[in-house]
Write a structure and sequence with these properties.
homodimer; Nucleoside Triphosphate Pyrophosphohydrolase; six-stranded mixed sheet; 29% strand; alpha+beta; 269 residues
Chain lengths: 269, 269
């Protein structure tokens, strides 16, 4: 469908076509936590897709809100399994369009293309696609304890899984090992993929893994982390349960770090 | 190190510093299949890293070779486990620099930054990072047969695993299911991650998976594929073995599709 602008335009004219509403730089939610939609008027730049026969569109986000606003993280927590990926796709794409008005090849202006899933440069013919940057996020285990760290911007007492971008030339497994060596000074093996999650702040693919550390002796990179510590299964269980006496505050439930910790406590895999 | 241009410049002045040589748009190989290096003269834009104490650098690729030249695929096949990721990182980065001379936010010129691992815009302050685009590549299984497809540009008789880019808002598992539904009309479950591989043509992270199809009835998207067929374990084994009577030509051994097929034949999940 994205290769056929005439068909997308015809879908926008359907009376049941829906347009995603925006609020303060993110998709707007109803009081019941569902995405808010309005009738389509005109030719919206972003074709989100069809739900059954019903076409869904979006405008682009207003340009005056930070694209990694932590105020938006909590919105994800309210969404159900239908709305969450729509929210993530719309927010990632809208923020990508905001920062890609010009062609990186020749410097001239680009315009949305393929229903908003690329931008085209009429000057040099370049076509540019939205990013989904792979990030590894991982639990290293040693002697039945798990390594968690504190990033400088975390709320008080929060510890979570270490993470970092996969670089060109790396496998997922190599990125896990490099990040843990760089940030915590540990060597790991048995890297095992567990689950993935799109994270639209601004547009990453979180790739969750576990691994085994050869030692529990840490050399923390204090440019990246405020702290890193090993926690026992009982300590993690208390934190996930929201126990006030737990030694740390768990990551939010909708983040993949929560899932990694929950499965580790349960002994999966 | 990348945050300290003075330290990188000092490394470039070391007498043992090595500069990657280029040939026809790709890193150059010796007759024995190792990457070719020369002494460093000046201030090369790309700091590849340290091997022990020895600093490794690269210039950027010359600009007149297609960035997804299939002539370069075979070079990867010759490389060992040390050189292959260096080749992949250098080629991905060089090609990324070639297509990112201008700032996508404001349209003005950018310059290499962080030892060549980003580009900075002095005009608007934007910083831009190299891409590593996640691509899912997968085997769907049904009734002890596996689904392979032919892309239009493949050599004669070649069949390989289906693949496609992960889009913003998707998990790895959702991307596998969407691609197989779009390209072959099948519904799948039990998506299982198997392995990953950086693929520097131009810069993707290949994420290999297996899954089970609910049916073997295919609806092939002829815009994407010339053909798609189910192959038995014996047929795949013959193709991997290079058997002239095999019903198809296997993907090259250094591609992750070969590994997926090899493990499937061996019965490794």
């Amino acid at each position: 469908m994205r290769a056929h602008p005439d068909r997308i335009a015809a879908l926008a004219r359907r009376s049941d076509a829906r347009l995603l509403m925006w609020d303060n730089g993110a998709p707007a939610l109803n009081p019941d936590g569902r995405l808010q939609w309005s009738p389509v008027d005109g030719d919206p730049p972003l074709f989100l897709g069809l739900d059954g026969e019903v076409p869904h569109f979006s405008s682009l986000a207003p340009g005056d809100v930070p694209i990694d606003s932590r105020a938006h993280f909590g919105l994800l927590a309210q969404l159900d399994a239908f709305d969450a990926p729509v929210f993530a796709a719309a927010l990632s794409l809208a923020n990508w369009h905001r920062r890609h008005g010009f062609c990186s090849v020749c410097g001239l202006a680009t315009t949305p293309n393929r229903g908003g899933w690329s931008r085209a440069c009429a000057s040099c013919g370049g076509e540019h696609y939205p990013r989904a940057d792979p990030v590894v996020i991982m639990l290293a285990e040693h002697d039945d304890r798990v390594l968690l760290g504190r990033q400088p911007h975390y709320p008080a007492r929060r510890f979570s899984a270490l993470a970092g971008f996969v670089e060109p030339g790396e496998t997922i497994e190599a990125a896990v090992a490099r990040e843990l060596f760089e940030e915590a000074g540990i060597s790991v093996r048995d890297v095992t993929y567990l689950a993935s999650q799109p994270w639209p702040f601004p547009s990453t693919l979180m790739i969750g893994a576990t691994c085994n550390a050869d030692s529990d002796s840490l050399t923390i990179d204090l440019n990246e982390l405020d702290d890193a510590r090993w926690f026992s299964r009982l300590e993690v269980e208390a934190a996930l349960g929201g126990d006030a006496s737990a030694p740390f505050l768990a990551p939010p439930r909708f983040a993949i770090a929560w899932t990694l910790l929950d499965r580790w406590v349960a002994g999966v895999p």
